[in-house]
Request: fold
Amino acid sequence: MNQTLADAMNCTSSRMLNAVDDSVKRFQAIVNLPTFILGLFLNGIALWILCFKLQKRTESTIYMTNLIVSDILLLFSLPFKIYAYQIGEWSLSPRFCNLLESLYYVNTYASILIITLICMDRYIAIKHPFLARTFRSPKKTGIACAVVWIVVSSCSIYIYSKKTSKNCFFNHSASVWKVTTVALLQTIFLVTALIMIFCSIQIIRTLQRSGALKSGNRSSSKSMKIVLSNLLVFLVCFTPYHVGILMYFLARNCWILDSYVVRLRNFLQICLCLANINCVLDAIYYYFVIKEFWKSNTNSQKTGA
Reply:
């Protein structure tokens, strides 16, 4: 058993690459820089509207506020990630490096879990409206978001406390690529993806059975579009990333031919760029939700008048 582990470590060290291809570096800069600028702008506006324009706190606005904060924290680390890859092996102080990597990777999974909670919340509200009175409330929503932050932060502290490499964002030490770590990440994504698919299908079926879509109800039609867009964005942004993690992990452990190692590393870096775009695409969800709340507040004010 010890000999097998030693062989795996030797294999990993002999194949370790210090940097990605130049073409991938250019791709990262081309994608990540606009993602940072546009994402920060859109998320900043959305957060400002939620904090200063929409006074009412509901389940949706609480989830959305947490999702925006998660996206902004991830975006904050992007310029450092871009710079680190452009200059190569850039070594920062270990604590600052761990902070940047935690902001990047932890908030990726915080976003995944919060998006899943939003989908589940919408499923309960539409599919089980009577149970929603018991399971849905602003207080319970706040607790759910707090649990997400505690879990992902705790996992981050544990993982990066085992890190030995001083490089930021690339060429991670073997301790970060443990079987348990990779298995945990794959399990989180697989479970959340299945939940998203199930809840989305059930929501669409419920709307169709109600006859609201056939009668031309615009609100129901918008709800279906929001559900479909969220599911599509979730799968497109995060599925390639987790496939890349799994394949590159197999390559590091000599379970894939040598000729694929460089390609899989480059593929993983491209998938990370795609996952970052989720911070911008989340704005689609913000737009529809804020628009509906704005209309609701306007109508209630007119009614009150």
Summary: The CA atoms of residues 97 and 168 lie 6 Å apart. The mean pLDDT is 81. The first helix runs from residue 2 to 15. The two ends are 77 Å apart (CA to CA).
